[in-house]
């Protein structure tokens, strides 16, 4: 028996230790390795809260270990330090009500300021107008429309670095969420509504983006790549797409809207916004009206094992 | 409550007359008066709450001693109405965002509505 | 409708399920017939209105559901550890995480706790039964048939596959046609009505049927937690009832509440769902707090520290639970102001919860801790739950939540609070009150073995998920990229540990039934509250004489004064309600009507509904007022039970 | 349980069973408040989302609505009188006033059905838009409650005629009266926030 108890305590003692240990390796975790100011502010908030949480965990674990070890009913303990009628102490109860309250207040302040900051383009690129990109989810693919550049991409995205991106989020059918963990947190894409999400990349590179909100069979595979490039490279890409990509017709677009998983990436030298904006009231039932029956079909999707992995 | 020993249900009749008067008043305020819409809504909702009070206290014997229920019925009704307020106001508070449900003028109207909501709570 | 549309086909796992269902059912029917137990089953169990028996049926059903939900979990873990094996395809995986979540919350956690409340609360307050025993039976059968209805979707018609939150528009008629989602709606609706009835029933019981002298602030803490839970149930469940009804009307009758067409508002579903859903979380956690408080006080051999603070913190949690629902969809884009309000209110819940944690720790201060199995579960709860709680605060910080939302960080968080809170409490409560229910203890050695497997397995399963979540792994994906593999394999290993723990626990029930020593006294653990004042097994009328309980820890005070609940001079005839078959019949008809509605057979559904109304009419004319147990009979039973 | 019967006070409270049932019903009514308020919240959030269907301002008629309101208010009053008669011990008075209440209730239902059919003819149905779904569900749930109340009260009338006033029948009558008054409470809010505001905005 006694052996087991010690065993257990050792395990419990390991828990906070392992937390510290794992935290040191955390810089490799996507969310804690942001590549832009939005993700950075969220990381800062997470790390800030983590220290308080770690403090609380250590205090509680220490108290817990102390109580369990000291006051176990071991043979020969007798009635020393045993007070069965002890039932309250106002002073200490006030202390442990007020301290958590203070911690909550301390945490609330940066939370609220960050919340309001996230509704604006990041300050670091305040001198430039944000780049507007309409990100539309459709079962189970992503359309990115650049109205200023008049181009559209499917399932991938190019963005300039050091410039705020103003995503206008909406969906053609089911609810999705645009999530690029290394650039910042997610927001929902909904039909008939438009959400604004500001993100920005400070380093060029290729980042994983995906739908964060479950929306049916093809959910797992509703991913995309974000290519963050220097302003010039981005402009080159835009120009190249404008010149080389075909034009998207409404007919082809309607076909693309049909529920399916699409492996390939596409680019077009115009946008679907010309005939429908799913974020408006008029555009909300565009896809449903055309494809109502197609949502009934099951795709029987399985994991297609590929040598180099699906996400490359 | 001495009322059940009485022959003539005075309290019920007062309650009935009051509720009819309040109903007519609300209908008049809504349709016959020239008050601003916000005032009308606030006014008739107040009248409704008074009427509910009449039902609860004058008809439903909510505070009757003999029931043995103590303050429980009162308490539950009170919390029920608090919850009702949370549910209705809370839903309006959280759900009036980013939607474009009007037909003619997209953005403006919706923003106004949002501000109205915020100032309301 | 063709037969092959009616039955689910083409899945080996489903065929396996069908075969095992047929086998188990025929085995049960055979055994009942062979041992001529049909009459016994009907008289003693199916028609009973005794709160103790109903509670046992609740717990048995909940254990079965824990098994089903656990199997679902295992299958998910296998799929995620070996994504290339294609053990499950996308559709099947979707169905399984949907049923896992729904079953664990609605058909496992709640019934398990309600089962414990059923058995213990009347005993703790010195009552002879519920305020409305008939309604109690009705509640149980509505839960039971609701659960059955939900579970047969596995083989008939197809399981729901839109997640346990069943977000619209995905779960609407356009995108999820067919009976699957209807099973979800009707199964939850049927059992939800029963839960609401239980809430009202228990509240009246606690408010009006306490032993003389027991003021509200002298009640045992588990009873207090039940009362607060009832309050939440009464105010939260009608919201679910309406939300489910609206979605049903949408799906079956073509309304436009949550549709993309007709200017419906899909997010309104999320709003209503979480207005119920968040209080629901506290419905399953507050009774757990109550159980831990009882167990810790008993085995620390010390009075609960800060009783008033404990009660008030529960009341505060209950109140706050209605003010935080938006934190489940911070990412909806409601704006910084709305999110700030709900972010702060969410974090505030940490304060009363923290108070409770410190009170439990202070209860251990200057105590004498005995490491029995229920106590081990309760002790393991404290550090585990704190890990879940602090990550909950992190999730409550809306700006950071944009990154945590829908990721495995969230999964890890709520499993840390729901397993370390609710499931540990279910095990603790069951083992603690087991002798009261069945007249013998569970074997301690097997109990501890199960404990270690389960608790270590639990941490191994869910602790890595915090990190894989921070690495960007979203929930509900059926395969994963190589970077996430190592931690997922660890998780799966842990899940098997938990599975082994559960298996040992179940084996222990059988083993102890065969081998444990029978209880001679009713007071198995040197208890403090009134449930231990009755003999074991508890006579059907609970208390021969109801004690005067004006002290906190009433039974402790009675033991000091040498009082018992059998005072021959004070005996009076006891009025008891008669058994009745009406609840099970009424709910069977309601289940039939729901089943018809699931397949949109409107005529049959209406016939079923009329049947339910007729049963209500019959009940209205039922003037059976029960019977009296005479003094001599009580004397005979008590003397035998107490060995006098 | 019914062992300790009280000697004085209203009949319906004299047994413990009576007290428990009435208290339980009050708590049930609290749950009903939440149920209806959820429907009100849905209605309020979906307000104005009429899609291609007519707007409420075009369809609502103050005359019908006022008649319905007066019918229900009066029935609530007569129901109160019925309980008054019960407490005076008059079965006959109770039954008479209860029947008057039910007749008024049926009148209310008749108008409501007429109203629904009228709207449907004008192109506003449960299916036509989110707003009308919410309207029909809210008003319909109230109507369903009234219908159930009438059916329940008829069953009770039979029992009253057969058994007269006992603690059980008077308890049941009292509970039905609570239910009936409560439906009036709900209607007041429907009248105000659905019809009047619908006509104003």
UniProtKB/TrEMBL annotation, chain A:
TM region(s), chain numbering: 45-69, 90-109
Alphabetized GO MF terms: copper ion binding; cytochrome bo3 ubiquinol oxidase activity; cytochrome-c oxidase activity; oxidoreductase activity, acting on diphenols and related substances as donors, oxygen as acceptor
Pfam families: COX2_TM
Residues in Cytochrome oxidase subunit II transmembrane region profile domain copies: 23-122
Keyword Cell membrane: yes
Gene Ontology cellular-component terms listed: plasma membrane
Membrane topology listed for this record: Multi-pass membrane protein
Top-rank EC class of the record's enzyme: oxidoreductase
Cited PROSITE patterns: COX2_CUA (PS50857), COX2_TM (PS50999), PROKAR_LIPOPROTEIN (PS51257)
Domain Cytochrome oxidase subunit II copper A binding: 128-240
Keyword terms, alphabetized: Cell membrane, Electron transport, Membrane, Oxidoreductase, Respiratory chain, Signal, Transmembrane, Transmembrane helix, Transport
Subcellular location per the Swiss-Prot or TrEMBL entry: Cell membrane
Domain of life: Bacteria
InterPro entries named in the record: CcO_II (IPR045187), CcO_II-like_C (IPR002429), Cupredoxin (IPR008972), CuRO_UO_II (IPR034227), Cyt_c_oxidase_su2_TM_dom (IPR011759), Cyt_c_oxidase_su2_TM_sf (IPR036257), Cyt_o_ubiquinol_oxidase_su2 (IPR006333), QoxA (IPR006332)
Family membership: Belongs to the cytochrome c oxidase subunit 2 family.
Biological function: Catalyzes quinol oxidation with the concomitant reduction of oxygen to water. Subunit II transfers the electrons from a quinol to the binuclear center of the catalytic subunit I.
PANTHER family: CYTOCHROME BO(3) UBIQUINOL OXIDASE SUBUNIT 2, CYTOCHROME C OXIDASE, SUBUNIT II
NCBIfam families for the chain: QOXA
This protein's name: Quinol oxidase subunit 2
TrEMBL record, chain B:
Catalytic activity, as annotated: 2 a quinol + O2 = 2 a quinone + 2 H2O
One Gene Ontology cellular component annotation held by this UniProt entry: cytochrome o ubiquinol oxidase complex
Protein EC: 1.10.3.-
Localisation per UniProt entry: Cell membrane
Gene Ontology annotations of biological process type: aerobic electron transport chain; ATP synthesis coupled electron transport; electron transport coupled proton transport
Pfam families: COX4_pro
UniProt keyword terms in alphabetical order: Cell membrane, Membrane, Oxidoreductase, Transmembrane, Transmembrane helix
Transmembrane segments: 12-31, 37-59, 80-99
Topology term for the membrane: Multi-pass membrane protein
MF annotations from Gene Ontology: cytochrome bo3 ubiquinol oxidase activity; oxidoreductase activity, acting on diphenols and related substances as donors, oxygen as acceptor; proton transmembrane transporter activity
Major localisation: membrane
NCBIfam families, per the entry: QoxD
Function: Catalyzes quinol oxidation with the concomitant reduction of oxygen to water.
Protein family per UniProt: Belongs to the cytochrome c oxidase bacterial subunit 4 family.
Record's protein name: Quinol oxidase subunit 4
Automatic annotation (TrEMBL), chain C:
Catalytic activity reported: 4 Fe(II)-[cytochrome c] + O2 + 8 H(+)(in) = 4 Fe(III)-[cytochrome c] + 2 H2O + 4 H(+)(out); 2 a quinol + O2 = 2 a quinone + 2 H2O
InterPro entries, per the entry: Cyt_c_oxase-like_su1_dom, Cyt_c_oxase-like_su1_sf, Cyt_C_Oxase_1, QoxB
Record GO terms (molecular function): copper ion binding; cytochrome-c oxidase activity; heme binding; oxidoreductase activity, acting on diphenols and related substances as donors, oxygen as acceptor
Pathway involvement of the protein, from the record: Energy metabolism; oxidative phosphorylation
Domain Cytochrome oxidase subunit I profile as annotated: residue spans: 34-550
Pfam hit, one: COX1
Cofactor(s) needed for function: ferriheme a; Cu cation
Membrane topology category: Multi-pass membrane protein
Entry's transmembrane regions: 12-35, 56-76, 96-121, 133-156, 183-209, 221-249, 281-299, 311-330, 336-358, 379-400, 412-434, 446-467, 487-511, 585-618
E.C. number: 1.10.3.-
Details of cofactor binding: Heme A3. Binds a copper B center.
Compartment annotation: Cell membrane
NCBIfam families: QoxB (TIGR02882)
Family the UniProt entry places it in: Belongs to the heme-copper respiratory oxidase family.
PANTHER family, alphabetized: CYTOCHROME BO(3) UBIQUINOL OXIDASE SUBUNIT 1, CYTOCHROME C OXIDASE SUBUNIT 1
Function summary: Catalyzes quinol oxidation with the concomitant reduction of oxygen to water.
Protein known as: Quinol oxidase subunit 1
Organism from which the protein derives: Thalassobacillus cyri
UniProtKB/TrEMBL annotation, chain D:
Pfam families recorded: COX3 (PF00510)
Transcription keyword on record: no
TM stretches of this protein: 20-45, 65-83, 95-114, 134-158, 178-198
Organismal lineage: Bacteria, Bacillati, Bacillota, Bacilli, Bacillales
Superkingdom of this protein's organism: Bacteria
UniProt name for this protein: Quinol oxidase subunit 3
One Gene Ontology CC term in the entry: plasma membrane
Protein function: Catalyzes quinol oxidation with the concomitant reduction of oxygen to water.
Catalysed reactions listed for this entry: 2 a quinol + O2 = 2 a quinone + 2 H2O
Gene3D superfamilies listed in its UniProt record: Cytochrome c oxidase, subunit III, four-helix bundle
């Amino acid at each position: 028996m006694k052996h087991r108890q010690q065993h257990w305590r050792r395990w419990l003692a390991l828990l906070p230790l392992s937390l510290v240990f794992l935290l040191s390796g955390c810089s490799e975790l996507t969310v804690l390795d942001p590549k832009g100011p939005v993700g950075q502010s969220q990381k800062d908030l997470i790390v800030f809260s983590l220290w308080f949480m770690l403090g609380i965990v250590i205090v509680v674990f220490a108290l817990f270990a102390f109580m369990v070890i000291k006051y176990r009913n071991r043979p020969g303990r007798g009635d020393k330090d045993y007070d069965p009628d002890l039932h309250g102490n106002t002073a200490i109860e006030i202390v442990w009500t007020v301290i958590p309250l203070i911690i909550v207040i301390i945490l609330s302040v940066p939370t609220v300021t960050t919340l309001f900051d996230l509704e604006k383009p990041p300050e670091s690129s305040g001198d430039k107008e944000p780049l507007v990109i309409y990100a539309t989810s459709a079962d189970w693919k992503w359309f990115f429309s650049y109205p200023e550049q008049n181009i559209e991409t499917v399932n991938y995205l190019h963005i300039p670095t050091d410039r705020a991106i103003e995503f206008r989020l909406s969906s053609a059918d089911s609810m999705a969420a645009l999530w690029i963990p290394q650039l910042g947190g997610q927001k929902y894409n909904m039909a008939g509504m438009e959400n604004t999400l500001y993100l920005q990349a400070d380093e060029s590179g290729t980042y994983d983006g995906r739908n964060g909100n479950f929306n049916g069979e093809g959910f797992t595979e509703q991913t995309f790549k974000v290519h963050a490039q220097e302003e010039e490279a981005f402009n080159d890409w835009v120009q190249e797409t404008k010149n080389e990509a075909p034009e998207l017709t409404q007919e082809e677009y309607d076909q693309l809207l049909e529920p399916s998983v699409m492996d390939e990436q596409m680019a077009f030298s115009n946008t679907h916004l010309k005939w429908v904006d799913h974020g408006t009231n008029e555009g909300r039932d565009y896809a449903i009206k055309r494809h109502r029956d197609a949502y009934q079909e099951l795709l029987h999707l399985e994991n297609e094992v590929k040598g180099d992995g699906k996400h490359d | 409550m001495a009322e059940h020993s009485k022959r003539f249900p005075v309290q019920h009749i007062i309650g009935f007359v009051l509720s009819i008067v309040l109903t007519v008043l609300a209908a008049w305020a809504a349709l016959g008066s020239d008050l601003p819409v916000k005032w009308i809504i606030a006014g008739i909702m107040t009248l409704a709450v008074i009427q509910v009070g009449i039902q609860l206290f004058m008809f439903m014997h909510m505070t009757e001693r003999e029931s043995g229920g103590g303050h429980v019925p009162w308490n539950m009704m009170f919390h029920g109405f608090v919850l009702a307020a949370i549910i209705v106001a809370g839903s309006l508070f959280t759900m009036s965002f980013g939607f474009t449900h009007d037909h003619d003028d997209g953005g403006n109207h919706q923003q106004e509505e949002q501000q109205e909501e915020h100032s309301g709570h | 409708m063709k037969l092959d549309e009616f039955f689910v086909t083409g899945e080996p796992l489903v065929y396996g399920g069908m075969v095992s269902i047929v086998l188990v059912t025929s085995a049960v029917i055979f055994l009942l017939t062979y041992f001529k137990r049909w009459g016994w089953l009907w008289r003693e169990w199916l028609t009973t209105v005794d709160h103790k028996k109903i509670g046992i049926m609740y717990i048995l059903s909940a254990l079965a559901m824990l098994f089903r939900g656990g199997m679902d979990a295992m299958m998910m873990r296998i799929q995620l550890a070996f994504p290339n094996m294609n053990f499950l395809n996308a559709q099947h995986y979707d169905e399984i995480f949907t049923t896992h979540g729904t079953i664990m919350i609605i058909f496992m956690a709640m019934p398990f706790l309600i089962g414990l409340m059923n058995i213990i609360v009347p005993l703790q307050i010195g009552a002879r039964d519920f305020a409305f025993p008939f309604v109690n039976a009705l509640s149980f059968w509505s839960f039971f048939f609701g659960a059955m209805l939900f579970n047969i979707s596995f083989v008939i018609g197809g399981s729901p596959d839109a997640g346990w939150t069943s977000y619209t528009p995905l779960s609407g008629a356009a995108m999820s046609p067919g009976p699957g989602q209807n099973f979800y709606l009707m199964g939850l609706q049927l059992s939800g009505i029963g839960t609401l009835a239980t809430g009202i029933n228990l509240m009246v019981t606690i408010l009006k049927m306490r032993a003389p002298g027991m003021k509200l602030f002298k009640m045992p803490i588990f009873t207090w937690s039940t009362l607060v839970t009832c309050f939440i149930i009464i105010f939260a469940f009608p919201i679910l009832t309406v939300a489910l009804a609206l979605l049903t009307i949408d799906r079956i009758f073509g309304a436009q509440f949550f549709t993309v067409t007709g200017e419906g508002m899909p997010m309104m579903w999320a709003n209503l769902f979480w207005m119920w859903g968040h209080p629901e979380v506290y419905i399953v956690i507050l009774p757990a707090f109550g159980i831990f408080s009882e167990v810790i006080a008993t085995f620390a051999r010390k009075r609960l520290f800060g009783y008033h603070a404990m009660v008030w913190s529960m009341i505060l949690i209950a109140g706050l639970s209605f003010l935080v629902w938006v934190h489940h969809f911070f990412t909806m884009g409601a704006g910084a102001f709305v999110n700030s309000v709900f972010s702060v209110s969410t974090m505030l819940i940490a304060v009363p919860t923290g108070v409770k944690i410190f009170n439990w720790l202070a209860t251990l201060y200057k105590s004498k801790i005995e490491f029995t199995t229920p106590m081990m579960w309760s002790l393991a709860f404290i550090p585990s739950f704190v890990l879940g709680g602090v990550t909950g605060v992190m999730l409550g910080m809306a700006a950071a939540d944009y990154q945590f939302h829908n990721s495995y960080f969230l999964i890890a968080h709520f499993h840390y609070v729901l397993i370390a809170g609710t499931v540990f409490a279910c095990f603790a409560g069951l083992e603690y009150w087991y002798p009261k229910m069945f007249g013998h203890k569970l074997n301690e050695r097997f109990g501890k073995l199960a404990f270690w497997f389960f608790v270590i397995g639990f941490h191994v399963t869910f602790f890595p998920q915090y990190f894989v979540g921070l690495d960007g792994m979203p929930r509900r994906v059926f395969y994963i990229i190589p970077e996430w593999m190592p931690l997922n394999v660890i998780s799966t290993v842990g899940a098997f540990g938990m599975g082994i723990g559960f298996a040992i626990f179940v084996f222990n029930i059988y083993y102890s039934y065969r081998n444990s020593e029978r209880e001679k006294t009713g007071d198995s653990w040197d208890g403090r509250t009134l449930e231990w004042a009755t003999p074991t097994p508890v006579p059907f009328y609970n208390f021969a004489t109801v004690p005067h309980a004006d002290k906190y820890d009433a039974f402790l005070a009675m033991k000091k004064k040498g009082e018992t609940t059998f005072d021959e001079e004070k005996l009076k005839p006891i009025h008891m309600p008669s058994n009745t078959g009406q609840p099970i019949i009424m709910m069977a008809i309601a289940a039939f009507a729901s089943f018809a509605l699931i397949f949109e057979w409107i005529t049959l559904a209406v016939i079923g509904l009329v049947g339910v109304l007729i049963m209500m009419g019959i009940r209205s004319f039922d003037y059976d007022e029960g019977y009296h147990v005479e003094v001599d009979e009580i004397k005979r039973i008590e003397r035998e039970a107490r060995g006098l | 349980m019914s062992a300790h019967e009280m000697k004085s006070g209203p009949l319906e409270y004299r047994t413990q069973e009576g007290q428990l049932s009435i208290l339980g019903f009050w708590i049930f009514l609290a749950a009903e408040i939440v149920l209806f308020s959820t429907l009100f919240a849905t209605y309020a959030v979906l307000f104005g989302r009429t899609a291609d269907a007519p707007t409420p301002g075009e369809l609502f008629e103050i005359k019908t609505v006022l008649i319905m309101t007066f019918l229900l208010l009066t029935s609530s009053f007569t129901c109160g009188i019925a309980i008054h008669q019960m407490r005076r011990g008059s079965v006959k008075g109770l039954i008479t006033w209860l029947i008057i209440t039910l007749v008024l209730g049926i009148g209310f239902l008749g108008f409501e059905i007429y109203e629904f059919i009228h709207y449907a003819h004008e192109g506003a149905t449960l299916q036509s838009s989110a707003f009308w779904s919410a309207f029909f569900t809210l008003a319909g749930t109230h109507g369903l409650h009234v219908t159930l109340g009438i059916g329940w009260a008829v069953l009770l009338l039979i029992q009253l005629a057969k058994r007269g006033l006992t603690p059980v029948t008077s308890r049941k009558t009292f509970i039905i009266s609570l239910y009936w008054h409560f439906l009036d409470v709900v209607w007041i809010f429907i009248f105000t926030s659905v019809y009047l505001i619908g006509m104003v905005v």
